[in-house]
Queue: 2 jobs
Job 1
Amino acid sequence: MKKTMGLLLIVFMISKTILAQQNTLSTTGKWGTQIFLSDANGQAFVNKYDNIQGSAYFFPTYKYASIELRDGRKYMDIKAKLNLMENEVEFISATSKEGYLGKGMVATISFNDTLRQEVKKYIFQSGFPGIDNQTSIHFYQVLCNGKITFLKSINKTMEERKNELSGEQSKEFVTRENWYVYQNGTMTRIKKDQAFFAGLFADKAQAFSKYINEHKLNFKKEEQIVELVNYLNAL
C-alpha cells in the first residue's frame, strides 16, 4: 500500500512539474524563450497594409527583440516588429508562423540594432498615463530612465493623397513625433526651449545652468537632451 501511494505521489509531482512548465516561461532549453501562437492569446497575423507607401513599423523588418508581457512573462531573442499605428507587437512563433500580441498585452519590447557600426538598443514601453489622445496602450520610446523619464512618442497614421494632375489616389504612412517627460506619475509634453527644462530641473538650477553654459545646448536636438537628462538624473 505504501509502495502504491509512493508511486502515486511521484506521478502527481511529475504531472505538476509538466503543467507548471506548460504555463510558465522557462528560460532554458530549446523552447525556453520562444513564443507560440497559443501564448498570451497570440493570434495569426493578417497583412492589412498592401499598396500603402512607407511603413507602420519602427523597423520595417523583423529584428531580434526581448519582450516582457503585462503579466510578467519574459521572452528573449524573439524575431519581432513593433507596429506603431496599431500599438501591437508582431512576431515569428516557435513554429515559424507570423503572429501578433494585441493592444495592451506587451509592457516592454527592446531591440538591438546591429546594422550600424555600434550596436544601439531601442526600448519601448506602454502603460503610461494617457495624454494628447494617447492611452495606456500607446508605446513610447524610452530615451532616458530615472527620476525623470524622457520619452518619445512616434505616431504612425495612414493618410490618403490625391494627385491634383492625374486625380490618382494613393495611401501612405505618415510619422509624427513628440517628446514627453514622466515624473511622479504624471506625463507632460515637452516644450523644446530652455525655459521648460529650467522649470523641470528647478531643484538643480545651479547644475542645470552650469551644464548648458558649458555644452551650448540646442534644446531641439534629441541626443543633447538625452545627455542633459541623464546627467541631472544622476546627481
Job 2
Amino acid sequence: MNFTSDVVDAADPSNLALVAVSAAGERREIRFGEVSDRAARLAGTLRGSGVRRGDVVVTVLGNTPEWAYTMLACWRLGAVAQPCTLQLRPADLRSRIERVEPRTVVADEHHVELVGAARFEGPVVIASDPGIFAAEPAPAAPLDERDPALIVFTSGTAGEPKPIRHGQGYLAGQRVQAEHWYGARHGDLCWCTAASGWSLSARNAFVAAWLRGAAALLHDARFDPDERIELLVRERVNVLCMTPTEYRSIAKRAGLRPLPALRHAVAAGEPLDPDVVQAWQDEAGVAVHDGYGQTETGHLVGMPIGPPVRPGSMGRPLPGFRVWIEEGELLADPVTVPTFFLDGARERPWRTGDRVRADEDGYLWFEGRTDDVIISAGYRIGPFEVESALLSHPAVAEAAAVAAPDEIRGQVVRAVVVVHEGYAPGDALAQELQEHVKAATAPYKYPRVIDFRDELPKTPSGKIRRAVLRGELTGV
C-alpha cells in the first residue's frame, strides 16, 4: 500500500484537488495531476538530501499546497512526516527535534530563523524555492500498513506533549470517518480549518476529502470570524470541519446567515455546546455533527449522518469500531480501530481518560476528563455541562469549570470566565451568571465561585488547561 499511488496518482489528473487561499488573498486551483507530479518531484529532492524509508521529516509550514506536497512526498518514500504548528517557539521545536531526530526539516522562508534558533543541524529545505520540484520523480515505495507514516504530538493537556506514531494504515483507515462522519462526497469542496501540525488537520485537511473523491480548501491565515463566513460563501464550501470554539465565535461575533452551498458540518477537538448547534441550524441552515477522537486513536465516535442531530452529544461509535464505558470512562478496542498508534499495546483496551455516558439509543455524551469531574455533595458534575450553560449567556466569551475545595461539600464548582467586550466583570454579573446556570441546568451544578479573567490558560492547540486552574487553588 502507498497513499500517494493508491489515491493521488490514481485520481483523474484533471479533477480538482486543492483550492489554496493565501493570507494575502491569492487564490489557486490545483488539479490532481499537478499534486501528483509535485509530490513525486519533491520526494526526489528529499531523497537527494538523504531522506530514506523510515526517516523523519519535520515540517514547519502553514496550510499551504507546499505542506500537502511535503506530507505526500514523505509518504511516497516511506518516510515519516512530523508536521509542526507554526505557534511553536524555539525551545518547543528543539524538544521535538530531540525526540524524533529528523533527517530533514522542510520550512517556509518565514520560519527558517525558527529552525535555526532550535539548533537543528541537518539540511533545511525551503518550501518557497521552486528548485525543490526540479528533481526526477521518485517512485512510490511499496509499504505495509504498520510502516510508520506520521508523528503527531499530543496537546499536553495533562503534561508534556508526547510523540504519537501512526502507520500507513492510519491514512487508508480514515475512509471510515470520511464516509460516516466527515461526510465528503465526490465533487465536494471540503474545508478543515485546523492548522497544520494538529491531529485533526493531519487526517482531514486533505486525506479524508481525497479518499472520497472530493477537493480540499487550504486557507493559510489566522482565524477571523467574518473572513471565515466570507470564504464559505465565496468558495461555495460543501463540507466544513471546525473546532467548537470557531463555531461558537462565528455564531456570537460574525453574524450567521444562510449558507446554501454548505451541505454538512462537523466539529471536533472539544465538546460542542448545544446552543451553538441550534444557532447554526436556525441561522445557517446546517446541523453541526459533533465527533470525538484522540491523537492516539484517530476518530472513534461521530454524530451519524442521516438521523437528526442530538445537540450536546458526540454521536455514536463509528461502524466497526468497538468502544464501551467502564466505570464512567470510555474505552476502545484497538484491534477494531485501524487508525490506532503504532506504539500502543493492542492486546488490551485503550483507556481514553474521558468520562462519558450513553443514552438508551447508544449516543455518547461527554462529561469531562477523568480528573476533571467535580464531585460536590455526592453529585458528579462534568465541567462541560457547566461551561455550556455559561456560554449560552450573551456576556460569556469563554468559560472553564473546575473543582474548588469546600469544607461542607468536599468540592464546589468554580467557573473562570472571560467576558465579551461591553460587559463589566463584577459581583453583579457573577450573580446573574449563577442564576442563569441554575435556570439552564440542574441547580446543583451552578458555580458557587466565579472568577473573571482576560484569558484562559490553554495548550498550543487551544484546549483549556483545567489542571492549571485547579493548581491555583491547591498549589500543585
